[in-house]
Amino acid sequence: MKHFLFALLATPLLFSCGKIKDPEFRRLDNFGVKKLGFEESTVGFSATYFNPNNFGVTVKEAAIDVYIDTLYLGKFTQPREVAVNKNAEFTIPLEGTIGLQRAMKFNLPGLLGKEVLVRADGSVKVGKAGIFVSKPIKYSGRQRVSADLIKNPAGAAGSMN
Question: 47: burial class by Cβ within 10 Å (0-12, 13-18, 19+)?
């Protein structure tokens, strides 16, 4: 009887979910240096998406390898959980450490106003009510490097959304 009652209550939930849609990438924001060092620096940025589903989730952790044009920028991780509302935009902060040798290959002031190919490969853990699953992240797209993208320059107090 207990199993029948559970099945009876769970059936409407299963049919109401419908097909789960993947989040839609919107933009990259808030690129900046969070900690400047002689041998390595910590940099960060925010990736904004739109959740087209009629339910919210939590993004628990993300780890992605980021490439700018063909150069490997580094591995970026999510420093804190992010609550995702239904049918709404959400922003995932990402940060990573870049060694001096790799940083020298990137001439950020020289890239201002230019378009670069950004590629990201990794995974993200999403879930609800304590149940989390890993989902792959694969992104490749052209991004214009503008002063609007760079909102947290070196020396500023590290505050990313």
Answer: buried
pLDDT in tens, 59-110: 999 999 998 888 888 899 999 999 999 999 999 999 999 887 777 776 666 6
Predicted TM-score of the model (pTM): 0.71
Q: Residue 115: which CATH number?
A: 2.60.40.10
| DSSP at 21 | P
Domain range for residue 88? 19-142
With H, G, I as helix, E, B as strand and everything else as coil, classify residue 64. strand
Q: Measured between alpha carbons, how far is residue 118 from residues 21, 27, 68 in Å?
A: 23, 11, 5
User: Does residue 126 lie in a domain region?
Assistant: yes
